[in-house]
Amino acid sequence: MSAPTVDVHAHVLLPEVDALVAGLPGLAEARALDARRNGPAALAVSGPMVRERAPRMTDVTARLAAMDAQGVDVQLVSPSPSHYHYWADEETAEKVFRRANEATAAHCAQAPGRLHGLGLVPLQHPEQAVRALEHALEQGLSGVEISSHAPGRELSDPAYEPLWTRAAQRGAIVFLHPFGCTLDERLDQWYLSNVVGQPVENAVALSHLIFSGVLDRHPGLKLIAAHGGGYLPTHIGRSDHAWSARSDAGAGCAHLPSSYLKRLYFDSLVHDPHVLRELVRVAGADRVLLGSDYAFDMGTEDPVAALRAARLPDSDFHAIRGANAAALLDLA
């Protein structure tokens, strides 16, 4: 029996979280920053797009119908990154992650076997991170979703060591999905905030994890990078050169940076069959997972066709289509 087709990059919208933060100090400021980073033209398109697609990310019946049309058997569902709310104080942050975890679990529970979920961790309060992870696992979720950084903190920050330790111990998935790019107004036209910003943020975050030695200290960490890891996998040779040529670049990690790509997982959402082939070459076919970014417009409506377009060997195609994720999620 062949493995199910598993999409590891699919989102849920959580009105419960929106209701929790509505009107709180800090939300308006965070939205103003988001507006400044994206620019007015992008906001004018994004608002109607999200409203039109919201039913597919809130109603389980609509989600299952879309999955059936795509030929997807299982989704790993993560909250929309708009729910991170890394501006929130400690009390609010705890309420956010608890409500997000519980609401995501409730959504997935409506289709057991077909939907698995991820919770949230308040990266702005590292002391809450392990508690948030444990809460997510208590709800029956498979792990947590995080952004590429929190205000003033990179993922290489020692404050996150307990999170990596516990995630590795528990076999929990950590899904790295950026939200917002610190290049700010430089990307405020033509939706560059997402087009360029997301792959930049992926590359920066993964570089912090690699060069700082996080992956040396936590070899069992199950980390999935969205958007194929951004720009890093296709330019990893530059990282290897720096590690070999400069004492400062090579000081933090034990091995060539490219070797760590085989310790990470990546989704297949790169929008180019040649880039997908290169990702498979540098990371290994066993480290790439099907991803669609359901149901946003920067995703793909047919992730299996996008994978097929890369013309990979049959064994690699089926591994990425679902076998790798089925093993990672321990699907029976």
UniProtKB/TrEMBL annotation:
Keywords: Hydrolase, Lyase. It comes from the Bacteria. Transmembrane segments: none annotated. Residues 6-331 form the Amidohydrolase-related domain. The keyword Plastid does not apply. GO terms for biological process: secondary metabolic process. GO terms for molecular function: carboxy-lyase activity; hydrolase activity. InterPro entries: ACMSD (IPR032465), Amidohydro-rel (IPR006680), Metal_Hydrolase (IPR032466). GO terms for cellular component: cytoplasm. This is Amidohydrolase.
